[in-house]
Specification:
binds fructose -6-phosphate, Rossmann fold, 608 residues, alpha/beta, Glutamine Phosphoribosylpyrophosphate, subunit 1, domain 1, 6-stranded antiparallel β-sheet, 8-stranded antiparallel β-sheet
């Protein structure tokens, strides 16, 4: 949520700030702003409501050749999206950009009664607080920032510049990521390493409670208690191609179509199809520790939660002595839930920064439970705080709607389950069948993505005017249906909900009428016949149905059928989910909406 950039060096600061903000725009896109300082500290502050393009229009009339500056793209928390509420916020000579939430901003504001606040934001309060300690440059900027942060409750990633110190930027973090790019005669700042690509591959990831003073050729990091920190410079693994559209109209379509390759990356070096085994080194659990596991707790939000749910259906099939509990992080963090002995918690997050998931991780660790991350973003906070983990390695996901991460999260968790089963000595062909299917999955995905898009597009065009949809499935198709409904609602704004087919008669069947269409995920399997009866019940009440199935002789008189490649069976719901992803994409295009940046949302939910 929200994006921060900063620059100090020899090049044009405005150019870097704007290009960096564009890279981070998917993180928040209701307003944006930059400030740059010339050598004497004269500031040029530009802010605009809406997209970065609006800011660029303003910039065209205010070009400066300044070499230091900070910028921000906003996802509103306090105060509506407007130019006045946009960052950077100014207080005296201080300029501040901020990600996160200052929870005690009202109390702090009450103490700052001399200051004339312009905005409704919590960030302006922090700017005024820093300014009150700065006293027009009487004290070093870093000292003023530290004094202020010591009074703050909440989360922050900040960058601060001062008209009186145009040779330094002060940055700090607590709960909201910040990375410092180490260049030649330049130092860069961003809340996400993707903004640094093309400028430097060398980065320092700040930890919570650290403050850095950066100059063109200097980086000095300390804790809030003034203890020096020796920074580790790391290589940024992402490349530029991974964050560009690569010929697709939208990132969403690119990321859906990338799944054969992204899943291959998840499996690389971890699956031995010949022997029917998997090997995960990252969780750092010995065979003895794996053998002792009796309970798996899976924690995530949104799509990551759905991935956990789907994985749980598989894991409980081959690890019979293990109970699997899947929880929504925003709920779980405030519950007084008992975690049984011999538990391991899987912490699932694409971004590795989701505030609620991170809070659960910290809470669970406090209880002495072993944590394993299922994370995509390398070096992210969750990845660094878990006891061990398995990166899904799908590369950057830029579109706000998560797609390729889901598929890989499910399989990474299934592989973790298989690792437990192997350690427990589960014998027979069952594990082998799973492993073989996992190894074949990238090709099966490729085949579906080569064959279904035209049909899905036609069906999307036909259904684009509906405002209501119901996704239905049983067994493993049920969590996949939940994910399908989430995808459709978040990008196309169609009111979509998912139900376990068996639940229909308990209420939702009353909804079926001409305002709704139903998407049914219908895999072959033990519950197939029961699901077919459920379909008949809906048809008898005038349902308008799209059935996605791998059963070639399915012949009920439904309006649309999408037949998918039947070469994998256990993971057919994952293939069906590709259809749901494409349906959401094409419906959104047909409805003329912003595919990659749906209204009110942002990638990476770093506030509660
Ligand atoms: C939906 C979506 C969200 C995320 C959720 C968790 O398409 O993207 O529901 O899945 O915000 O995000 P991560 O995985 O980054 O923790």
């Amino acid at each position: 949520m929200c994006g921060i950039v900063g620059y100090i060096g020899e090049k044009n600061a405005q150019n870097f700030l704007i290009s960096g903000l564009k890279r981070l725009e998917y993180r928040g896109y209701d307003s944006a702003g930059i400030v740059t300082l010339d050598e004497k500290g004269k500031a040029t502050l530009l802010r605009a409501k809406g997209k970065i393009a609006n800011l660029e229009e303003k910039l065209a009339k205010a070009k400066r050749d300044d070499h230091i500056g900070i910028g921000h793209t906003r996802w509103a928390t306090h105060g509506e999206p407007s130019e006045t509420n946009a960052h950077p916020h100014k207080a005296g000579p201080i300029y501040l950009v901020h990600n996160g939430i200052i929870e005690n901003y009202k109390e702090l504001k009450a103490e700052l009664s001399d200051f004339e606040f312009q905005s409704e934001t919590d960030t302006e309060v922090l700017a005024a607080l820093i300014n009150s300690f700065y006293q027009d440059g009487k004290y070093p900027l870093a000292n003023a920032v530290v004094q202020a942060l010591k009074l703050v409750k909440g989360t922050y990633g900040i960058a601060v510049a001062s008209e009186f110190a145009p040779e330094e930027i002060v940055v700090a973090r607590s709960g909201s990521p910040l990375v410092i790019g180490v260049g030649h005669d330049e130092t860069l700042v961003a809340s996400d390493a993707s903004a640094l690509l093309g400028h430097t591959k060398r980065a320092i990831y700040l930890n919570d409670g650290e403050v850095a003073v950066i100059g063109k050729n200097s980086i000095e990091i300390k804790t809030l208690n003034a203890e020096p920190v020796s920074a580790k410079v790391e290589e940024i693994e992402t490349n530029l191609a991974a964050i560009q559209k690569g010929g697709y109209d939208h990132f969403l379509l690119k990321e859906i179509m990338e799944q054969p390759e992204s899943l291959t990356e998840t499996l690389r070096g971890r699956v031995n199809a010949k022997e029917g085994t998997v090997h995960l080194g990252g969780p750092r659990l010995s065979v003895e520790e794996l053998r002792k596991i009796r309970h798996l707790l899976i924690v995530g939000c949104g799509t990551a939660y759905h991935a956990g749910l789907l994985a749980s259906y598989y894991i409980e099939q081959f690890t019979p002595e293990v109970t699997v509990e899947v929880v929504i992080a925003s709920e779980y963090r405030y519950r007084s839930a008992y975690i049984p002995e011999d538990s391991v918690a899987l912490i699932v997050s694409q971004s590795g920064e989701t505030a609620d998931t991170l809070a659960c991780l910290r809470e669970i660790k406090k209880q002495g439970v072993r944590t394993v991350g299922i994370v995509n973003a390398i070096g992210s906070t969750i990845a660094r705080e878990v006891d061990g983990g398995t990166y899904v390695h799908v590369g950057p996901e830029i579109s706000v709607a998560s797609t390729k991460a889901f598929t890989s999260q499910v399989i990474a968790m299934v592989m973790f389950g298989l690792t437990i089963a192997q350690a427990k000595g589960v014998k027979g062909t069952m594990l082998r069948l799973y492993v073989e299917e996992i190894a074949r999955l990238p090709e099966a995905i490729r085949s579906v993505l080569e064959t279904v898009p035209k049909t899905v597009k036609r069906i999307a065009e036909k259904h684009a005017k509906y405002e209501h949809a119901i996704y239905l499935g049983r067994d493993t198709a049920y969590p996949a249906a939940m994910e399908g409904a989430l995808k459709l609602k978040e990008v196309s704004y169609v009111d979509a909900n998912a139900y376990a087919f068996g639940e229909l008669k308990h209420g939702p069947l009353a909804l079926i009428d001409d305002r709704f269409f139903e998407v049914v995920l219908l895999p072959k399997g033990v519950l197939y016949e029961k699901a077919v009866s459920n379909i008949e019940e809906v048809l008898a009440r005038g349902g308008h149905m799209v059935v996605v199935t791998n059963v070639t002789d399915f012949d009920l008189p439904v309006e649309d059928v999408i037949l998918i490649d039947a070469k994998v069976e256990k993971f057919a719901p994952l293939l069906m989910n590709l259809v749901s992803q494409l349906l959401a994409y094409y419906m959104t295009v047909c409805r003329g909406l912003n595919v990659d940046q749906p209204r009110n949302l942002a990638k990476s939910v770093t506030v509660e």
